[in-house]
Amino acid sequence: MSEDPLKIGIAGLGTVGAATLHYLINENTRIAARAGRALTVDAIVARDRTKDRGVDTSGLRWFDDPVALAADPGIDVFVELIGGADGVAKATVEAALAAGKPVVTANKALLAHHGAALAELAERTPGASLHYEAAVAGGIPAVKALREGMAGNGITRVSGILNGTCNYILTEMETTGAAFGDVLLDAQKLGYAEADPTADVGGFDAAHKLAIMAAIAFGRQMDFAGVQIEGIDSVSAEDIVAARDMGYRIRLLGVAERTAQGVAQRLRPCMTPADSALGKIIGVTNAVMLEGDAIGATILTGPGAGGGPTASAVLADIVDVARGNTPPTFGIAAADLAPIAKGGADIPDEGAFYLRVMLKDRPGTLAEVATALGQSGVSIHRMRQHDHEGDAAPVTIVTHRCDLADITAAKERIVALTVCTEPPVSMRIVES
Amino acid sequence: MSEDPLKIGIAGLGTVGAATLHYLINENTRIAARAGRALTVDAIVARDRTKDRGVDTSGLRWFDDPVALAADPGIDVFVELIGGADGVAKATVEAALAAGKPVVTANKALLAHHGAALAELAERTPGASLHYEAAVAGGIPAVKALREGMAGNGITRVSGILNGTCNYILTEMETTGAAFGDVLLDAQKLGYAEADPTADVGGFDAAHKLAIMAAIAFGRQMDFAGVQIEGIDSVSAEDIVAARDMGYRIRLLGVAERTAQGVAQRLRPCMTPADSALGKIIGVTNAVMLEGDAIGATILTGPGAGGGPTASAVLADIVDVARGNTPPTFGIAAADLAPIAKGGADIPDEGAFYLRVMLKDRPGTLAEVATALGQSGVSIHRMRQHDHEGDAAPVTIVTHRCDLADITAAKERIVALTVCTEPPVSMRIVES
Question: What is the Cα–Cα distance from B109 to B115, expressed in whole angstroms?
């Protein structure tokens, strides 16, 4: 074992930072054995110096300025756990990389928005490297599995359940029959959802992770702007019930896949068979499905958030740094990453779709809807009209394979018929 | 990218070798980009030079002697795909390591039987390293996830479904109700089981993988002899049905866990809840569950065998070698691996158990069995007597938590009662 300890600087001592500090200090011998050299936490920075974090921080150098810590010559590796796509977090990571240091971060927003520039900076600066296992699916070693474990594969598709808060809410809606808003309120009370839930329920957090995985999987520049994002706030209790009736579950799925027209990146609620790999994922658990030409498919599941699991990923990156395992940020040289193709949103979105139409209760309306579907090129695989008490009869339809453009056209035709009490709802069906 | 190509020598061109060769030759550019340097297959050895493997091997150096290839100064990394715990495979790996070369192997038997000595040889020889992702769970990056991705964790338990043939047979028995022998015959006809199925159905193949994972997880010397092994050949159609009735499935589980008395390694058929992570695994799929103090649990599933998936793991190791990612064989320095503790088999085996008793159809027998259980310290959680046509009434029991020793004592008492038409059957219940 090298006599020279790896000196670690940590910026941000929230839940993840405190957990990371705990393991690095209280389990130091164990982690050093795995790292092949002594490790020491040398310097830290956090807003509150007096807070009890359950760890003795008295011997550490405290900084007031995170950027000064990041560039400090006394530290060998910089751990960024401040968060946020811009501002201080970005400044610290840039400073550390520019100073030729390896950086470990859990910051998915930073990676998704500035990953390309940071990867280039890391690559042109001797000694610098960028590690972000904790940014994707928390404790699940998804980045390592994709970037290293599947390095021999031509990746065809990366998909998954990438936000535990959303999966918890959808699972609760299934179990209780409650509406989205009520379940969200409960989730906030239980600490499973933030006071401002937009990043989670709006799909942005999961979209960050999808964009990061897509960059690695397809060897292309980060294209967060190219992710089509739809959150779960519009998922209704009616659609949850309809999904169950047809053997499906609604899941917020991220899917990045190679098509003849380019790489599609879509993050949205989908219906998936209840007994499929992703349909079976319950509660706050995350799941990542990696598909490649050699392996077929492998699926990784586990805790996608929380102090311990996220610290587990941060520690793995620190051990990699200690061992000198510093692959290019997105798996191949930054200069070789394929440029972002225009028009990702125009890639055909083909598959089966779910459609729910609330019909006015008068003769002939169903026939009119069926005709509108046919005129739009949408062929019906299954159709059900449900019992109803009010003045609208819910009709649920599963289509044969078609394109989203056909579904959109069909919905417009149906609205124009004025046979519905509310606009039709559609959702992509994904056989995960 | 380095101008100097990494020259690869491959010994053994069966299914996995041919698939590895295919990707290295036909997808060379893609893999070289991931590896960060040019890769070239330089030399090969196989029993049959004339066989069509779907790849142009005309430009390669053919060797007659695998050991000569392994030590040849012209190759930079040696890939061993011959197989077998001893003989030629072992000689080649030793020769390559002694010559200071990185070795990539899919040989779980070799690792399980000689891992300790090989790890020491790799570590004391400059330039040598030993890579074996393909030896555990085929394409699933289980070794990488455990050795690197969970490097910060104190591992508490490693478990899984580690043999696809056995899981296929158990799943078929569930689906069809057929007996073990009949399903095995079908599996052999379909190519899912070998002509000599002992390594698979006897549990030895899975036990090799469990021993390898336990060495990494617990930082101890390989202890294959310490694995308690029981195959699936004694699993009866009656127990499959009884499991289903109680909400369980029978799975061949490998479990290595840290206990107060030492590390227990057990590979045997268990009952596990049908909706648990491992109970849900169907068919030839493998699953690996890794539990640690920071992460909680993460589960990896995927194809555990086959040319493509296993080649995927071999290629990942080759890319690691190309990038210089060569951690110690079992995650920490070989000299620091804990010695094998004596008496692993004496570690208490505590949990709930399933018990099936075939009672003679006469009054009072059930009371006698219940009394025998009580006398043995076994407390009943659930009991069911089933419909029966013959002269024996099947009684199935789920116990409260007790030790295997109590179950063994209870079975002896029950046999002595002479109230049964056949010896009682027991199986550990694992809440996976």
Answer: 9
CA distance B51 to B129: 32
B90 as an active site residue: the answer is no
Distance from CA of A250 to the nearest CA of B (A): 19
CA of B321: which chain A residue's CA is closest?
Answer: A325
* CATH superfamily, with its number, for domain B350-429: ACT domain (3.30.70.260)
- The reported pTM is 0.96
Helix axes B28-35, B15-26, angle to 10 degrees: 80
Tell me: the pLDDT tens digits for A162-208? 999 999 999 999 999 999 999 999 999 998 899 999 999 999 999 99
Among the listed residues B90, B108, B144, B209, the single catalytic one is: B209
Gap between the Cα atoms of B214 and B347, Å rounded: 16
Is the ipTM higher than 0.90? The answer is yes
Put simply, the answer to whether B31 touches A152 (Cβ < 8 Å) is yes
Parallel, antiparallel, or unpaired: how do β-strands B420-429 and B350-360 relate?
Answer: antiparallel
Structural domain B142-303, CATH architecture:
2-Layer Sandwich (3.30)
Q: What is the 3-state secondary structure (H, E, C) of chain B?
A: CEEEEEEEEEECCCHHHHHHHHHHHHCHHHHHHHHCEEEEEEEEECCCCCCCCCCCCCCCEECCCHHHHHHCCCCCEEEECCCCCCHHHHHHHHHHHHCCCEEEECCHHHHHHHHHHHHHHHHHCCCCEEECHHHCCCCCCHHHHHHHHCCCCCEEEEEEECCHHHHHHHHHHHHHCCCHHHHHHHHHHCCCCCCCCHHHHCCHHHHHHHHHHHHHHHCECCCHHHCEECCCCCCCHHHHHHHHHCCEEEEEEEEEEEECCEEEEEEEEEEEECCCCCCCCCCCEEEEEEEECCCEEEEEEEECCCHHHHHHHHHHHHHHHHHCCCCCCCCCCHHHCECCCCCHHHCCCEEEEEEEEEEECCCCHHHHHHHHHHHCCCCEEEEEECCCCCCEEEEEEEECCEEHHHHHHHHHHHHHHCCEEEEEEEEEECCC
List of residues 6+ apart from A404 with CB closer than 8 A: A348, A349, A350, A353, A428
The pLDDT of residue B133 is above 70: yes
Q: Which residues contact A225 (CB under 8 A, 6 or more apart)?
A: none
Select the residue of B140, B295, B316 nearest A151 (Cβ to Cβ).
Answer: B316
pLDDT tens sequence across B231-255: 999 999 999 999 999 999 999 999 9
Domain chopping of chain A, boundaries: 2-139+326-334, 142-303, 350-429
**CATH number of the structural domain B2-135:** 3.40.50.720
Nearest to B315 among A152, A300, A331 (CB): A152
| Measured distance CA(B177)–CA(B77) in Å, rounded | 49
Residues in chain A closer than 8 A to B323 (CB atoms): 325, 327
pLDDT at A1: 45
C-alpha to C-alpha distance for A63 and B161, rounded to whole angstroms: 49
Contacts of A327 in chain B (CB under 8 A): 36, 323, 325
Q: What residues in A contact B312, CB-CB < 8 Å? A: 150, 152-153, 292, 294-295
Q: Is residue A59 classed exposed, middle or buried when 0-12, 13-18 and 19+ CB atoms within 10 A define those classes?
A: exposed
pLDDT at position B341 is: 83
Residue contact B301–A303, C-beta within 8 A? no
Homologous superfamily of the A2-139+326-334 domain (CATH): NAD(P)-binding Rossmann-like Domain (3.40.50.720)
Task: List CB contacts (< 8 A) between B300 and chain A.
Answer: 145, 298-300
